[in-house]
Specification:
CATH class of the largest domain: Alpha Beta
Oligomer: single chain
Structural class: alpha/beta
CATH superfamily of the largest domain: Ribonuclease H-like superfamily/Ribonuclease H
Number of strands: 5
Number of domains: 2
Order of helices and strands: HHHHHHHHHEEEHEHHEHHHH
Length: 345
């Protein structure tokens, strides 16, 4: 009589690491020993949690049913286990049961059923926790600013344009076997055939001056560019000089001691800008528009590139600039909602 419970206990303990907890629940339900049933249930829950990756709320359901209904709790646990893990998501049930013969096509199909589709990841700036914190503080600080404040901000930035850059060319629609016709090709040259750096600015009323940077721009060159272009741009755009806010990114030429000292003599109010935040500067969209417009004209030399760039910059409508400024508050809300991470802008 004493060997019978011990034998049953050994058999159950051995099968604990081989069979599914569902089978163990059925066995212990028909087992006449009350304490042995409780012991089997305990080992089954541990097995289910450790080897079948059951969420804690499922384990809680099993413990609750076994405690409230000691005689039929195991059967109820089997029913709950089957409903949760098989009826709701058969794909997850197969993975939990240790199936290793799931094809990649099956995985993709089930991911598509769960509204998960394969897409190429978007490129975003590398943001550290310090960057995210600074972006979040900036968004919270300026969220309550009125629209009139942003309309008097002069936004500036530099952009590089290649003579034969391919990033701004649009899609070509052609017939079959016409891929290498001249009208369907884009000429390419090593290193883009040369490039030029441009400094530009804009406000809510339109675009300001666009200046070409000669050679490698240093702090002194940057100061001379600002001296030549900021004043005429302010007068052209009708900004109020006394309440003017100057915006620039954190490029070393912009934040050097000599540049800061030079700006202090001009008594400019400089907007404190968070690093790694191109999505907060609408001038990035205008730079892209400029590259697309110049690329369509296909300049053949550096002189044409500079001329076309200045012409297309002046053609950007003021309504587009105003649209960016009017919707700027949405950018700040987006940064707050994403807790300082990159946004869709």
């Amino acid at each position: 009589m004493f060997l019978c419970p011990v034998l049953v206990y050994c058999i159950v303990f051995v099968f604990m690491f081989v069979l599914s907890p569902v089978f163990l629940f059925v066995v212990c339900e028909f087992c006449a020993l009350y304490y042995l049933r409780r012991l089997v249930v305990s080992f089954s829950l541990v097995y289910c949690s450790c080897f079948h990756f059951a969420p804690p709320w499922e384990v809680f359901c099993f413990i609750f049913l076994c405690s409230v209904f000691p005689h039929c709790g195991c059967f109820c646990s089997v029913f709950v286990f089957c409903i949760i893990n098989i009826s709701v998501n058969p794909f997850t049930a197969c993975l939990r049961l240790g199936s290793s013969s799931v094809s990649a096509r099956t995985i993709r199909r089930h991911l598509n059923e769960m509204k998960r589709y394969g897409r190429r990841p978007r490129g975003t700036p590398l943001l550290t926790q310090r960057h995210k914190k600074a972006r979040l503080q900036f968004a919270k600080m300026y969220l309550s600013k009125p629209k009139s404040f942003w309309e008097n901000v002069l936004r500036t930035d530099e952009t590089k344009m290649e003579l034969f850059g391919k990033a701004h060319h649009s899609t070509v629609y052609r017939k079959r076997n016409e891929a290498y016709k001249e009208k369907n090709t884009v000429p390419t040259v090593k290193y883009g055939g040369g490039s030029k750096m441009f400094w530009g600015c804009f406000a809510a009323s339109g675009t300001g001056c666009l200046d070409c940077v000669q050679g490698i721009m240093k702090s002194g060159d940057y100061q001379r560019i600002l001296g030549r272009n900021v004043g005429p741009s302010v007068r052209k755009l009708g900004l109020r000089p006394r309440s003017l806010v100057f915006q620039q990114d954190n490029d070393p030429k912009h934040t050097s001691k000599s540049t800061q000292k030079w700006m202090a003599t001009k008594r400019w109010r400089v907007l404190k800008w968070p690093a790694m935040s191109p999505d907060l500067n609408p001038i990035e969209h205008l730079s892209r528009d400029l590259k697309i417009a110049v690329g369509k004209r296909r300049p053949s030399n550096m002189r044409d590139l500079e001329q076309f760039a200045k012409e297309e910059w002046s053609k950007i409508p003021g309504e587009r600039c105003k649209k960016f400024i009017d919707g700027y508050r949405k950018r700040l809300i987006s940064v707050i909602f994403s807790k300082g991470c990159a946004t869709k802008y």
